[in-house]
Amino acid sequence: MKKERIKEMEILQAIRNTGFGSTEKVKAVVLETDGSLSVISSETGNALENVNSES
Protein backbone atom coordinates (compact mmCIF):
# COMPACT_ATOMS: atom_id res chain seq x y z
CA MET A 1 0.00 0.00 0.00
CA LYS A 2 2.80 2.38 0.84
CA LYS A 3 4.61 1.72 -2.43
CA GLU A 4 1.48 2.45 -4.48
CA ARG A 5 0.42 5.36 -2.22
CA ILE A 6 -2.95 3.88 -1.42
CA LYS A 7 -4.51 4.62 1.94
CA GLU A 8 -6.44 2.09 3.98
CA MET A 9 -9.53 4.31 3.83
CA GLU A 10 -9.45 4.10 0.00
CA ILE A 11 -9.48 0.31 0.18
CA LEU A 12 -12.33 0.32 2.69
CA GLN A 13 -14.25 2.71 0.45
CA ALA A 14 -13.82 0.36 -2.52
CA ILE A 15 -15.13 -2.50 -0.38
CA ARG A 16 -18.18 -0.47 0.66
CA ASN A 17 -18.81 0.62 -2.95
CA THR A 18 -18.98 -3.04 -3.92
CA GLY A 19 -21.72 -3.58 -1.36
CA PHE A 20 -19.84 -5.34 1.41
CA GLY A 21 -20.47 -4.08 4.93
CA SER A 22 -17.37 -5.75 6.32
CA THR A 23 -14.09 -7.24 5.17
CA GLU A 24 -15.00 -10.79 6.26
CA LYS A 25 -16.23 -11.87 2.80
CA VAL A 26 -13.46 -10.10 0.88
CA LYS A 27 -10.65 -12.30 -0.40
CA ALA A 28 -8.59 -9.58 -2.06
CA VAL A 29 -8.52 -6.00 -3.28
CA VAL A 30 -6.61 -5.67 -6.55
CA LEU A 31 -5.03 -2.48 -7.88
CA GLU A 32 -5.86 -2.54 -11.58
CA THR A 33 -3.64 -1.09 -14.33
CA ASP A 34 -6.02 1.87 -14.72
CA GLY A 35 -5.64 2.77 -11.04
CA SER A 36 -9.02 1.47 -9.94
CA LEU A 37 -9.52 -1.02 -7.12
CA SER A 38 -11.33 -4.31 -7.74
CA VAL A 39 -12.81 -6.18 -4.80
CA ILE A 40 -12.80 -9.98 -5.01
CA SER A 41 -15.27 -11.89 -2.88
CA SER A 42 -14.06 -14.92 -0.96
CA GLU A 43 -16.84 -16.80 -2.76
CA THR A 44 -15.20 -16.11 -6.15
CA GLY A 45 -12.34 -18.35 -7.22
CA ASN A 46 -11.33 -17.77 -10.82
CA ALA A 47 -11.02 -13.97 -10.80
CA LEU A 48 -7.57 -14.15 -9.20
CA GLU A 49 -5.96 -16.56 -11.68
CA ASN A 50 -3.74 -14.00 -13.41
CA VAL A 51 -2.89 -11.89 -10.34
CA ASN A 52 0.76 -11.96 -9.32
CA SER A 53 0.90 -12.10 -5.52
CA GLU A 54 4.56 -11.02 -5.41
CA SER A 55 5.29 -7.34 -4.88
Structure description:
The structure is a single chain. With 55 residues, the chain is of the alpha+beta class. The chain contains 1 helix and 2 strands; from the N terminus they run H-E-E. A two-stranded antiparallel sheet has the order 1-2. A hairpin with a 5-residue loop joins strand 1 (26-31) and strand 2 (37-41). The longest helix is centred in the first third of the chain and has 11 residues, at 8-18. It is globular and about 25 Å long. The mean pLDDT is 85.
> Segments where pLDDT lies below 50 for 5+ residues?
none
In angstroms, what is the radius of gyration? 11 Å
Helix-strand topology string? HEE
The average pLDDT is: 85
Helix content estimate? 10-25%
Q: Please state the structural category.
A: alpha+beta
Short description:
The protein is an alpha+beta fold and 55 residues long. It is 20% helix and 20% strand.
Write the layout of secondary structure elements.
Blueprint (H helix, E strand, L loop, with lengths): L7 H11 L7 E6 L5 E5 L14
Antiparallel strand pairs: 1-2
What keyword list fits this structure?
alpha+beta; 1 helix; 20% strand
